[in-house]
Amino acid sequence: MKKWRCTVCNYVHEGDTPPDKCPICGVGPDKFVLIEETEAVAPVKEKKWRCTVCNYIHVGDTPPDVCPVCGVGPEKFVLVEEVEDGLTDKEREALQTLLFNVSYGLYIISSVRDEKLNGMVSNTFIQVTSTPLKASVCLGKGTLTSEYVRESGVFGVSILGKDNHDLIKHFGYQSGRDVDKFKDLSYITGKTGCPGLLETLCFVECEVEQTIDLGTHYMFIGKVVDGDGFSKDEPMTYAYYHATR
Question: Which PROSITE patterns does this one have (predicted)?
Fold first, then answer.
């Protein structure tokens, strides 16, 4: 018996002719091709969506209405691009579990474009060298803050303390495309024009010297040019936030 493959969703139909309508995606017979005996049927790849706030992965044709981990809506999800790293999903998941043991801080990464301010929550800021003093941060390509940094060449980092849970919600659960995140907040304006939040522990600002394309993210490596301290409370860690939120 002949086999026909839907070129849209890879559904396989058996019969002398293609079906009038694909039972999976609904396209007509014109979208079916006859499978030769030597043709391997391509597996249907399920889409994966990553929450940009908590990194939860959802599998499905569309992002979920609500993230089951942090509660944000579908607009906070981005489609995960397939990464050719030689690992199976099971192997990658096991390695990711090990990496969860790495200690991370939490930060508000800010930038400026045409006098407009924006910021986002990140756990990827690190110091990379001490002489000269340089630091880096990785930001998702689809984020507004990433766009600001690429265009302005500067970014600021407000380092969060253990009492800054509200700032994580404020900067992580809404988009700067919809609201002015810095409205009604107290902040200083650094020498680069980036805002530093006064209710955080401290603020440093960097001028980008190198941008590395990581596929789904950009890594910005910058020279630390200025900073200021506001509090001596304990810094917020990623593990502490998830244990107390």
Answer: RUBREDOXIN_LIKE
Q: In CATH terms, is domain 107-244 a member of 2.30.110.10?
A: yes
Answer whether 0.70 is exceeded by the pTM. Answer: no
CA angle centred on 109, ends 103 and 112, rounded to 5°: 170
Burial of 127 (C-beta count, 10 Å sphere; 0-12/13-18/19+): exposed
Query: Cis omega before residue 29 (within 30°)?
Result: no
What top-level class would CATH report for the domain 48-95? mainly beta
Place of tokens 């991370």: 104
Structure tokens at 235: 């810094």
* Cβ neighbourhood burial of 91 (10 Å; 0-12, 13-18, 19+): exposed
Return averaged pLDDT per consecutive 10 residues of the chain, 245 residues in all: 77 87 79 66 65 77 81 79 68 81 92 96 95 95 93 98 95 90 96 98 98 93 97 91 83
Tokens (6 digits) for 94: 């096991």
**Where are the chain's structural domains?**
3-34, 48-95, 107-244
Q: Nearest Cα to 200, choosing from 221, 171, 177, 175? A: 171
